[in-house]
Design a protein that fits this description.
The chain is an all-alpha fold. It is about 65% helix and about 0% strand.
């Protein structure tokens, strides 16, 4: 009997490899989905607010004035502290939108033919 050579077997496509038709929801390799980035940004902003509220509470600035002060200070602070996340999120949303528009254009061109 002859032994089979594995090189003679037909090559099956790897399901992990990207296909020629890309989906608009495909994420770059090794990156978080957009929803996870949005959630992280929201939790980060909330965290800054809570930390400032606790600081004001510890120094005796309690009640509604303390919460309002924490809210007013957390807005510009989160704008500065979370800039990298916000820029990354905006970039990913823009890339996703461009991919969606290119797919729509491909279908429009295909329908005309």
């Amino acid at each position: 009997m002859t032994e089979r050579d594995p090189a003679d077997d037909p090559i099956e496509p790897d399901p992990d490899e990207s296909s020629s038709v890309s989906k608009a929801s495909d994420e770059p390799a090794g990156s978080k989905p957009i929803a996870a980035l949005m959630a992280a940004y929201a939790v980060g902003r909330l965290g800054i607010f809570v930390i400032l509220g606790m600081i004001f509470w510890a120094f005796g600035f309690r009640g509604l004035p303390g919460l309002l002060a924490a809210a007013l200070i957390s807005i510009p602070l989160s704008f500065v502290v979370l800039k990298a996340w916000r820029v990354e999120l905006a970039k990913r949303i823009e890339e996703r939108k461009v991919a969606q528009l290119s797919i729509k254009d491909e279908f429009r061109i295909t329908d005309r033919d």
